[in-house]
Amino acid sequence: MKRKGLIVVISGFSGTGKGTLMKRLVKEYDNYALSVSATTRNPRPGEENGREYFFIKDDEFEKLIAEDGLIEHAGYCGHYYGTPRQFVEEKLDAGLDVILEIEIQGALQIKKKFPKAVLLFVMPPSAQVLEERLRGRGTESDEVIKGRLSTAVKESKGIEEYDYILVNDDLDECVKKMHEIISSAHFTPDRNEEFIAEIRQELKKFEQ
Questions:
Q1: Are 57 and 83 in contact (CB under 8 A)?
Q2: In this predicted model, which residue has the larger pLDDT, 91 or 140?
Q3: Domain that holds residue 15
Q4: Which of 52, 116, 147, 152 lies 20 to 30 angstroms, CA to CA, from 131?
């Protein structure tokens, strides 16, 4: 049975450690490809264009939307975010699971277009830990942090739309669980319809 790649959407409140989790997952296991999103926000210290994100202008982003060059896009905290289509399709065809870090609006767009996508929501152990992590970054003003916490209140109302939740308390354990969930998703009947159909066809010779 030929392995087909899955789209895996990772979402979570800002500050839950999504980026670190995904980098560890890709580093420790060889069957993943990390999708690089396009965004109109400015780079944070240490971020590079084409590595963390493709940092582009609003008019460039809007051109991608018009040309159907994105499989999803959304506005978040005053900026555009979106997933380039070509990269994702190439990796899926190669049998790799493509990891997408996107917020709830985009995740639900993905689920409509790709019903077999796996949606995971990363959560902190508590709201207090979330605030501590945001402040611990030391890269954003108090106003921005308050905005991100306010956004988390709204995002918390969409968690039930996801297939799984993961609490990022222990990083090593969370990476392991994430890999186990994605691996298991490959074996659900709805993601193996072609294989099931083949077996049914082969079994017909035994009909009486």
A1: no
A2: 91
A3: 7-203
A4: 52
